[in-house]
Fold this sequence. Notes:
Blueprint: H1 29-44, H2 49-56, H3 60-72, E1 76-79, E2 84-87, H4 89-100, H5 103-119, E3 122-129, E4 132-139, E5 154-156, H6 161-167, H7 172-181, H8 195-208, E6 211-214, E7 221-229, E8 235-244, H9 253-270, H10 279-287
Antiparallel strand pairs: 1-2, 3-4, 3-8, 4-5, 6-7, 7-8
GO molecular function, one term: DNA-binding transcription factor activity
Domain IclR-ED: 90-273
Protein name: IclR family transcriptional regulator
Amino acid sequence: MKQHPTTPDRRARGRPRDWDDKTSQNTIKSLDRAIDVLERLGAAGGSTLSALAGDLGQSPATVYRVLVTLETRRLVEFDPEGQIWQIGAGAFLIGARFLRRTALVDRARPILRALMEQTGETANLGVETEGQVLFVSQVETHASIRAFFPPGTLSPMHASGIGKALLAQMPPGRLARVLDAHPPERFTAQTLTDRAALEADLVATRARGFSIDAEERNEGMCCVAAPVFDLHGDPVAGLSVSGPTTRVRAADMDRLGGEVRRAAATLSGALGGAPVDGSSFVSTVSASPVSSSSG
């Protein structure tokens, strides 16, 4: 069999010579437009053609062609009765495949269930992506009034329990870059928008091992979160519990913070990290009945 010589210029298949070039000459404008439509439709939760076209600043005819193309791949769906376009099952399947590429979500699932049962509040798993928190899994509480962050939801880091837990682990240089790129925006009277105040809160967060979101994103809702570490000791995710201020009160923060911190340490151990303070949570999980409801 003829052998092909290996040369220094030879590259792995799937990467052309100019694969690092992200300029306009290497982008497909029609694909970029289609992704814009898909992202905007997902953010809106559904839209009419005219409203979507106006939002994107595109002609209805152009947006319609994009939607019909996406519809053939089940990435969007059309409701003829309400004349509404919505995200389709195909988009969910692609997102589900993204989640399956890592053991994080699978390993977190039983820990989230146990955390919800122990605290009585909704348990969440989130990761940092481009300076925001992306929620990737959730187990809802059985209570009628609850927090709800469906997988795929994005949240500002400075006004999120998980976001602040991860910000607190960043070295100063990276923290400054993230906050420069995403200046703290005010959502409620409690939101920390002053950089000095936010950084002081992050110092306190790191010292106690868990963060507190006290109505900083939504009035009447509180959150407690802790970071998850991989085998290299890098923060790769955050676990949290969230609920209404009528149940998640100031007097409960230390107790909830301890539960969340132990749960996060258990998940860290499952990922190969050091399961600091995780042993008591593990024993509690094995002794407690775990609800089969995934919320």
